[in-house]
Amino acid sequence: MRRASLAVRLALACTGGAALLAVAGLVGMLVGSVPITPGDLWLAWTDPARLDPATATILLDLRLPRVLLGMLVGASLALAGSGFQGILRNPLADPYIVGTSAGAALGASLAIVLHLPSPLPWLSPVPALAFLGALGAMLAVYRLARIGNTLPVETFLLAGVVVGSFAGAMVSFLMTLAHEDLPRVVFWLMGSLGQADASRVALVAPYLLIGGVALYLLSPALNVASMGDEAAWSLGVDVERLKIQVILAGSLVTAAAVSASGLIGFLGLLVPHLTRMLVGPDHRVLMPASALGGAAFLVLADTVARTVGAPQEIPVGVVTAMVGAPFFFWLLHRRKGLS
Amino acid sequence: MTPPRLQALGLTFSYTPDSPQVLDPLDLELEPGTFVGLLGPNGSGKSTLLKLLAGVLRPTQGHVDLGGEDLTRIPRGRLASTLAFVPQDVHVWLPFTCREVVAMGRYVHRSGLGLLDSGHDEVVRRCMADTGVLDLAERRITEVSGGEAQRVRIAQALAQEARILVLDEPTSHLDISFQVEVMDLLSRLNRTHGLTILAALHDLNLASLYCDRLIALRQGHVLRDGPPAEVLEPALLLQVFGVQVEVQPGPGQRPRLFLVPTGSREV
What we know:
The structure holds 2 protein chains of 2 kinds.
Chain A (H helix, E strand, L loop, with lengths): L5 H25 L7 H9 L6 H36 L11 H14 L11 H21 L7 H26 L3 H9 L7 H20 L1 H7 L3 H6 L4 H23 L5 H13 L3 H25 L8 H20 L4
Chain B lengths: L5 E8 L9 E8 L4 E5 L6 H9 L6 E6 L2 E2 L5 H7 E4 L11 H6 L17 H10 L15 H14 L4 E5 L7 H18 L2 E5 L3 H7 L2 E6 L2 E6 L1 H4 L2 H8 L3 E5 L5 E5 L8
Parallel strand pairs in B: 3-8, 3-9, 6-7, 7-8
Antiparallel strand pairs in B: 1-2, 1-4, 4-5, 9-10, 11-12
């Protein structure tokens, strides 16, 4: 059977993804420890003044930023994962492979344990230092891995491991000093959308927008890059420049996402694979589809995280891995392969 | 349109600063429209030379000149529309269909940002027909045989519509009928379309039958360079490959080679 034309596949994937995201958004707004009716939601949209104040607070101040942040972070991690898997030609690559996660963790732990003030006036200390930590780790990996004008994949992966291990050790050391702050550090490391507010939404949105557009524009070259460096080069793709562009875009997007939500595992590995199984390997379809899929997935996972054990919240990273890992295993087993 | 002249001037190369040179200072000129075979044992520097001529590697010293320009200074896109290179082993990890793989050859001719495919169907179809892979169009590249993947890769290079084709052992994974088919195709592209073709070849008889000119390489050194009858002679082949060969005149006065059995396998 002939694969449908690119335009058709793109339209189908985007419509399907958008519909899924809309459903996830509705679920995220309506479901929770305090049930909200669709009527309340309609009222909040059309005439918020007539809404009961408690309901208005829950909907507009608590759930809305949380659903929005979940969408942005989910889309960011899935996009970065798709980009890294594509450019590194490695099915095990995830957004954290560059060490941004460990860098962000170090920054966040410093902020929590040493009660450091925020160096970025528009952000509270934890996301601000986490963001700077992620950027620092990314630059360190890049500097370590770069040889002349090239960025060899093996060196890059090793540099990611080295920087990640170092930052990880620093985090462990800080945790031994933490005492009463320890639960906060642990909770941050497991990932949560509980701190969602306008400033965090505003932190992630621009990076996702710019990084997403960049990755989408690079997707024709990413397709060619799947042929391997030498073949891609002779087909007209400047592979070394492409590597740097994709890694930079992916790392920035990840850095912003991680700073706002902590370490949400597995999503950035899982969603690109799931999406590839559905829409095929063409990055021009994969990028928008996995962004929409990642956004929907995280909003749904977060709804589970805050309802199953209510009033106690489970970290959303625990949910993504606990749901994602067995599901992924089942899929792989059924398909007998990664692609 | 005649292909530009491809010329190597004093090329040397070593993979790291401390490792030995793979090529002696090497000079070479490819006349536009010739079909040249590169011969030599494993490790003689054939692949390195091809990659230098294709611009995949940068020479340690010397330079490659393409139509009067230093190859390393030619922008990627313009180079890929002039010269297409088929590396020896290409491993595609994503399950693109063979049609999609061939269509990647059009990357260099993409319109706009390349975000939509359009206007390339005819070229892609023709290149697939020429290499006999039309019936593989919807199969995944990860699921076809090595020989089929090889032909898909050649179709991809043809889709670049470059005037110079450089191929590293294009017949290596193919059974004998496809070896002949690929050589016939290259020969046709060379004669009717005037393409310059440079291919590293292992099968000396195929090289003799199809090429205008052969270059024998040993340890990064050109031992002989000339028409098949001058290169394929017993003394030189013993020197290059270390095997005893008997040579008889074949069709069109092209030498035909027979291995002389040695040692325990004497008959």
